[in-house]
Specification:
This protein is an alpha+beta fold and 384 residues long. It is built from 7 helices and 16 strands. It folds into 2 domains: 229 residues, no CATH class; 113 residues, no CATH class. The strands form 5 sheets. It has a 6-stranded antiparallel sheet, covered by helices on one side. Strand 14 and strand 15 form a beta hairpin. Helix 5 packs across helix 7. The chain starts with a helix and ends in a 7-residue tail after the last helix.
Length: 384
């Protein structure tokens, strides 16, 4: 009997090896490690979520890369996002929040395309960031400069934010609860150089942005929600809608019919209506604070996707408290006049006392600024 078990096992191993070889998959890797809340490892690699293998930063088996229709602006940094859930578990669909199982780990790796010398590139294109044929799945370590990887881990009591900072040698990311600062020289397509300091937030600042229910103080994921995930992604086995793919691999249950799912456009997709693009941009960049339960609830300015009252969205709305944050302007939005609108002033400022968002950027997002200017300019009416 033992002899037959041996030969059966050898045969299965041979078949598996052949399948792996034919499919072009990586060699088997150690499984993902999940650590207790009070046992955070010093090295990102200890989690086995994403590892540097053969010149690429590659997610482990079951660690799914994903993308958002419109992402949060972070000083022109590119981002590799992934999700992993323990075997046999899945998230329960919800239009505003998914109910993720305990043990879920979300990662977001911030990086820049490398330029010449010590510069990094300002570009919207991700083509050269990835190993050939692995777009969205395997960052080319020769082409990118990694900065940080943030983890959100679902514990029994809620989500835990864990920041890791990549070393200068680009070989490992190390846990740093206090955050960090790194100077960069950012080069645009015209060759102009912008010197700025990239700020890695500390654990408390991570929690501050992710607590979109400010009263409850509990943090939650901002990006992987239905309206942001409802788009196609190029997986190894083909291009598919991300929500359908999560359902197919067992990471999502209770998904409604596709026609009923919410969706927001890319802010950069000029084929979509201007208002939809501007609202999507404000939702992801401002809505986590400017919502009825967020940190900016007392401002009365609501910029989350569900708001329908134009006055609460800022139209001819005076600020609750005046000061440097208003730029001397009277209303949040003056239709047709971005140069007289507080909203435009704050997103165009880099003054710590006036800029919005308050955290996560040192530079002005020129493309976002231009979009919001077009949006306000296109509004009719007046505040007289």
């Amino acid at each position: 009997m033992n002899k037959w078990k041996y030969w059966a096992g050898a045969f299965l191993l041979h078949v598996t090896t052949v399948i792996v070889a034919l499919s072009g998959c990586e060699k088997p890797r150690s499984p993902v490690n999940l650590f207790a809340e009070d046992a955070i490892p010093e090295r990102l690699s200890d989690w086995n979520l994403i590892n540097i293998i053969d010149g690429g930063l590659i997610p482990n088996a079951g660690v799914l890369p994903y993308d958002l229709n419109t992402g949060l602006f972070t000083d022109y940094a590119h981002k590799l996002r992934t999700v992993w859930m323990p075997s046999g578990t899945s998230a329960e669909y919800g239009e505003e929040h998914f109910n993720y199982p305990v043990g879920t780990v979300l990662t977001k790796t911030f990086y820049y395309p490398r330029g010449e010398g010590d510069t990094v590139l300002r570009t919207e294109s991700f083509t050269r960031d990835y190993l050939e044929g692995r777009r969205g799945k395997a960052l080319d370590m020769q082409a990118v400069r990694l900065v940080e990887t943030r983890l959100l881990v679902k514990r029994r009591g809620g989500w835990q934010a864990i920041p890791y900072i990549w070393n200068a040698a680009q070989t490992e990311a190390v846990f740093e609860i206090a955050g960090d600062t790194t100077p960069f020289k950012l080069v645009n397509s015209s060759g102009d150089v912008s010197e700025f300091t990239y700020v890695v937030p500390d654990a408390n600042q991570c929690a501050g942005c992710h607590a979109d229910n400010f009263t409850g103080k509990k943090i939650s994921p901002l990006g992987p929600r239905a309206r942001h995930l409802n788009k196609n992604f190029s997986y190894r086995d083909g291009t598919e809608n991300q929500l359908l793919y999560w359902q197919k691999v067992g990471y999502l249950r209770g998904l409604p019919a596709m026609a009923s799912l919410p969706s927001q456009p890319s802010y950069a997709d000029t084929s979509k209506p201007l208002e939809d693009r501007a609202r999507a941009y404000l939702d992801i960049n401002c809505g986590h604070c400017h919502n009825p339960a967020g940190a900016a609830d007392t401002s009365g300015l609501m910029l989350h996707h569900g708001e329908t009252d134009w006055r609460r969205m800022g139209l001819c709305k005076p600020p609750v408290a005046a000061g440097t944050g208003s730029g001397g302007r009277v209303f949040a939005i003056v239709p047709g006049e971005p140069d007289h609108s507080i909203l435009n002033f704050r997103v165009e400022s880099v003054d710590p006392g006036a800029m919005m968002p308050e955290l996560g950027r040192s530079l002005v997002h020129e493309e976002g600024v231009n979009l919001l200017r077009q949006w306000v300019t296109a509004m009719s009416g007046s505040c007289s």
